[in-house]
Design a protein that fits this description.
alpha+beta; Translation Initiation Factor IF3; Alpha-Beta Plaits; five-stranded antiparallel beta sheet
């Protein structure tokens, strides 16, 4: 599904700002007598995600750092092996966070001196097909992972690049339409493009939907995703001449 929307438009004509505009940036040119029309326009595309990023963490606590490291290593090895069995290689698994530190807290009444156990965390980001998100979550939890930190549905780089080109074309066409409307109302003619600048681009990320079935009781985890939105805005300055 694709939609195009206009964000804002601003124009300047011999130093005078068009009605309803928000900025005025006159610039002198020999060809047009200093007349310019500046607009900001946007294009937007909604697309189904083709990648999911699943963040999982292995967490261990023990009274000494050696035990924590050993347990972390064992569970991480188990996790990687389970993912490899499901076709998820090391090239699709990256470390997102690693830390081993002491947990310090005040002793509870009657407990005596405060204990300072070590706590280790090794978190990973796993890139998978969106349709396999629930399967990978279940495999991770059943093979060493202590928790699921985050699930996001995204567009792969080739898809995002292709969609961005489409959105950019839409935004530029929208900008030209706005400039033509402004020119017609100011007795001007658009005489070419002076400059074009990309203002910003949406990240193309969608958070996971609700878990529709828990992993407990043998039921597989299912996560619904929504569409991913890619947005681009352009700022275009056109030269303008007096309409004949």
């Amino acid at each position: 599904m694709r939609s195009i929307r206009s964000v804002a438009a601003a124009g300047t004509f011999d130093g005078a700002t068009a009605p309803g505009t928000t900025t005025a940036t006159p610039a002198e040119t020999e060809d047009t007598g200093g007349r310019t029309i500046q607009v900001v326009a946007a294009g937007q595309v909604d697309a189904e995600p083709d990648q999911a990023l699943v963040r999982v963490a292995v967490v261990e606590t023990a009274s000494n750092i050696t035990t924590v490291r050993r347990r972390l290593a064992a569970n991480v090895s188990q996790l990687r092996a389970a993912l490899a069995d499901r076709g998820i290689g090391d090239d699709r698994i990256s470390t997102a966070f690693f830390d081993i530190s002491r947990e310090r807290r005040q002793p509870r009444p009657g407990e005596g001196a405060a204990r300072t156990p070590y706590r280790g965390i090794h978190a990973f980001a796993i890139t998978v097909d969106p349709n396999r998100t629930g399967e990978i979550i279940d495999a991770a939890i059943g093979n060493g992972a202590s928790r699921i930190d985050d699930v996001r549905f995204v567009l792969s780089e080739p898809t995002r690049r292709a969609l961005r080109n489409e959105v950019l074309s839409d935004a530029l066409a929208n900008a030209r339409t706005q400039a033509g409307t402004i020119a017609a109302n100011m007795n001007l003619t658009v005489a070419g493009v002076r400059s074009v600048r990309t203002v910003d681009t949406g990240p193309g990320i969608a958070a996971a939907g609700e878990v529709t079935a828990s992993a407990g009781g043998g039921a597989p985890t299912e996560i619904a995703s929504g569409p991913v939105t890619v947005t681009t805005r352009v700022q275009v300055t056109y030269n303008a001449t007096t309409a004949q």
